[in-house]
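Email to the structure team, subject: MFS transporter model.

Hi all, the expression group asked for a predicted structure before they design truncation constructs. Nothing fancy, just the C-alpha cells so they can compare against earlier work. One-line instruction: predict MFS transporter, return C-alpha cells.
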Amino acid sequence: MSYRSLLRVAGVGFFPLGFLARLPYATSALSTLILLQASTHSYAFAGLASAAQSIAIAVGGPLVGALADRYGHRSVGVAAAIANFGAWAALLAASHGSRESMFAAATFVGLTQPQVGPLVRVHWSRLVQSRNKHHLLSAALSYEASADELSFVAGPAFVGLLASVSPLAPAVATMTLIATSTLPFALIYAHRTAHQRPSAQHKKPHLPRRPLAVMFLAMVAMGAIFGAVQTAVTVYADTIDKPGASGLVYAEFGIGSALAGAACAWLPPRFTLRARYVSFAATLFVGMLVLFLGAQLVSVPAAVAVASFTVAPYMISLYALTERLAPAERAAVAMTILCAGGPLGTAAGQAVSGNLAESHGVEGALLVVLIVAAAALLLALSAFLADRKRNIWIIDAEPVKNLVSQELSGQPQNAN
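Reply from the structure team: attached below.
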C-alpha cells in the first residue's frame, strides 16, 4: 500500500527517470578507470585518478547541497548536470593528452557530480510534507535505498558490457545518460526555488554539528565496508581463476540489500529512528560476522548473499535521522554531507583491505569489513548513550519542528 501511495504522490514518470538519472554516479568510477587505463596502460595511474575523483565527489557534494539550499534544487541541479557533461567531454579529450590533464579532468568530473541521490531524498521530504503525507516518508526513503543499490548493480554491469566494445563507450554512454536523464530529471522534478534568505532578525539555523558528525562517520563506515567487500570479491574471483565472477558476486550484495531496503517501508512507526539506528548497526555487525566466518567455512558467494540483507536497513536509518535532524533550510547540504562519507569510506576501505589482501587474501580483506562494522556499532551505542545522558539529538536539532523531536525521542511533544 505504501509504494502504491508513492506512485500517486510523485507520478509514475518520476520513478524510471529518477533511476536513470542516478546511473551516471554508479558508472562514473569504473568508466574513468577503464578509459584512463586504456589511454595510459597503467592500472596504478588509472586507480589514482579514480580515487581522486571519489575524493572530489565527497568534497563537491556538500558544496552542491549548500548551493541547492540557497538557489533552489532546479537551478543547481541543471547547472551541475551541464557542468558534469562538460567535465566528461574534457576527460574524453584529455585521454589523448598528458597524464596531468587526465588527472585534472577526472577530478573535475567528481567535483561536478550531480547529487541526485541526496537531493531527491530532500525532494521526497518536502513533497510528502506539502501533501500532508508524512507517513509515506519511510516508504520513500526505503525506495530510494533500493534504487541506489540496484543502480550500483546495473551501472557496473552496463559499463562492463560497453567496455567490451570500446574503452571510450562507457564514458560516452555516461554523457548520454546525463543529457537524456539527469538533466531532464532536474528540469521536471526538482524544486524551482530555494527557501527565502533569512532576514537580519531571523538568521539561517545552524546545522546540528554533533549529530551530523555521527551520521557522517557512520556513512564513512558503510563506505569502507563497501570498499573492502569489493576488494574481497575481486581477490576471490582471482583465486578461482574467474575474474568475471567478481561482478556477479558483488551484484548479490546489491540485490540482497535492495530487497531488505524495500521491506523497510513496512517497519512499524513505534520503532523509533534512534532505536532503528542502534538495532540496525547491531544487525550490520552480525551480518559482517556471518560474512567473515561464512567465507571461510562455507563459500564467499553464500556468505555475501546472507550478509547483504543487513546493509540497506542501516543506511536508511542514517538517511532518515539526517532528514529529521536538519532544519528544512539546510536539508540539502546536510544530506550531501552525509553522502560525502560514502566515497571517502570506500576509498579508505579499498586501500586498507587491498594491503591486507596482498598477504592474507580474502580473509584479510574481510577482516577490515568486520572491524569497521564493529566500529560502526560502537559509534551507534556511544551516540545512543550520550543522547540518553545529554539529550544531544533534540538540543542540537532545536530548529526542527516539534513533530520531529517527538519521533526522535519516542516521547509526547510536551515531554520537554
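The chain has a mean pLDDT of 83. The CA atoms of residues 33 and 46 lie 5 Å apart. Ping us if the truncation boundaries need rechecking.
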